[in-house]
Design brief:
Layout (H helix, E strand, L loop, with lengths): L9 H11 L4 E6 H4 L3 H8 L5 E7 L4 E6 L8 E3 L5 E6 L5 E7 L7 E3 L20 H5 L5 E9 L6 H15 L10 E6 L6 H13 L18 E8 L6 E8 L15 H6 L7 E2 L7 H5 L12 E7 L8 H16 L4 E6 L1 H4 L5 H7 L1 H12 L6 E3 L11 H22 L12
Parallel strand pairs: 9-11, 9-13, 13-14, 14-15
Antiparallel strand pairs: 1-8, 2-3, 2-8, 3-5, 4-7, 5-6, 10-11, 10-12
Helix pairs in contact: 5-13, 6-13
Length: about 425
């Protein structure tokens, strides 16, 4: 509303956004400007969709109510299962958010033309249960009343968290000018979900489930070439500051799958995209002559993908190969992060908080002991395998892993001298 300012401070707006899970509000009605008049309130606020009414009293309390339904001056109660009362500030104006969900949705709001915002809110009714002293200090002497339209679809806390992490990844920029994108090498046993991890991360930023890298399961590695996969922000969006590098899976038998000695040439940036992996150990001289790689061509972080369902029964030979792999990567000082996949099969609950609390004390601890890697460098993920649609909980696990890979890569780049930007001629 042009010319009419909100009374809410930035901190109060953040608290309100946290309660509502919404990005923006538009001020529709302000009593000190438009008058304490029910007719004016309804003229400005009816048929506006979801709204939030906020009261300010002389005791410093800021409180109010939210409805997902429109006022229409119906003269009847509005049924709203999403309605709730809230407090932003309590006694003496101290920020102390409180949310009181509706108890009986059928009487959530009284929509009467002769009344302003009316949430049928008394401590003795059956619609909301609360203590009046907690909500507004038993002080209904308002010094201001504002009503805002809640813009757009309400966003859950999980969706807000997903968007927050996505924005962190989008806005990341390596501090070295010579490294426009960090390169993450994805390694692991066959069938653990290496290629599927890239496909899943790519799906999150595309906005739908997709499969660019060859993935699947077989007795031998499905991936036979060394591939580099940039990630775009949307189908036609700009490239993100990360490149995933995928290669053959590690196999138990000698002479099959990716050999540990082949990893050195990949880390040093000597291996071009689409190179047929498996011949590197025989053609090391030819490989190193392909190019003279710079820091931007090298690997900056390694993701080791492990099937969380199989870590307890990992064979001694494969366990030893993974330890050799870690030792090889450590020689270059490259940070590593273990991605424990298939956590939904370990903990088939479908709830993010149960996954991240339950898994670490079991498979993650076993993984740390077997591979000699700190628990802080092991994160649970779930790849998109059979799903046709994205899931917010799955996205958060994937994005959290990518964010940690970026942070580890940044710590590696800290080992190199800072480059001052070149002056324009």
């Amino acid at each position: 509303m042009a010319g009419v300012k909100s009374r809410l401070t930035q901190d109060e707006v953040k608290q309100l956004q946290h309660l509502l899970g919404s990005r923006q509000f538009s001020l529709l009605y302000k009593a000190s400007v438009h008058g304490y008049n029910a007719s004016i309130f309804h003229a400005k606020c009816d048929t506006q969709g979801p709204t939030v009414a906020i009261g300010y009293n002389g005791s410093g309390y800021i409180f109010g109510g939210f409805t997902s339904q429109s006022y229409v001056s119906s003269g009847a109660y509005i049924n709203d299962e999403k309605a709730f009362l809230f407090r932003l500030k309590g006694k003496e104006g101290v920020l102390s958010p409180l949310k009181i969900p509706v108890k009986t949705a059928a009487g959530a709001i009284y929509d009467y033309s002769a009344n302003g915002p009316n949430f049928a809110a008394t401590s003795s009714n059956n619609y909301y249960t609360y203590n009046v002293a907690d909500l507004h200090g038993n002080d209904l002497g308002l010094i201001e009343c504002e009503v805002y339209r809640v813009e757009g679809k309400l966003i859950s806390k999980e969706k807000m968290e997903r968007e927050k992490i996505m924005e962190e990844i989008r806005s990341y920029k390596p501090y070295l000018n010579s490294v426009p994108q960090i390169r993450i090498l994805v390694l692991g046993p066959i069938g653990a979900g290496k290629s599927s991890f890239f496909n899943s991360v790519n799906s999150v930023f595309r906005g739908y489930v997709t499969s660019q890298a060859t993935a699947g399961s077989d007795n031998t590695s499905v991936t036979t070439q060394y591939r580099t996969y940039p990630v775009k922000d949307g189908r036609d969006g700009k490239p993100l500051p990360i490149v995933f590098c995928d290669t053959m899976g590690i196999e138990e038998k000698l002479g099959t799958g990716l050999e540990i000695d082949e990893v050195s040439n990949i880390i040093k940036g000597h291996v071009p995209d689409r190179y047929q992996v498996g011949f590197l150990q025989f053609c090391a001289v030819q490989v190193t002559s392909f190019s003279t790689p710079s820091l931007k061509d090298e690997i900056h972080c390694v993701a080791i993908v492990i099937d969380g369902c199989k870590i307890e029964i990992l064979s001694e030979k494969l366990e030893e190969k993974l330890k050799q792999l870690r030792r090889k990567v450590n020689q270059f000082g490259i940070p590593q992060l273990v991605l424990l996949t298939k956590v939904d099969e370990i903990c088939p609950i479908g709830e993010l908080f149960r996954i991240i609390l339950f898994v670490p004390f079991l498979q993650m601890r076993i993984t740390a002991e077997k591979l000699g890697i700190p628990l802080a460098q092991i994160v649970p993920v779930k790849n998109y395998c059979s799903e046709l649609d994205l899931s917010c909980d799955v996205d958060i696990l994937l994005l959290s892993a990518v964010r940690q890979l970026i942070r580890l890569a940044e710590s590696y780049l800290d080992n190199f001298p800072f480059e001052k930007p070149k002056k324009e001629l």
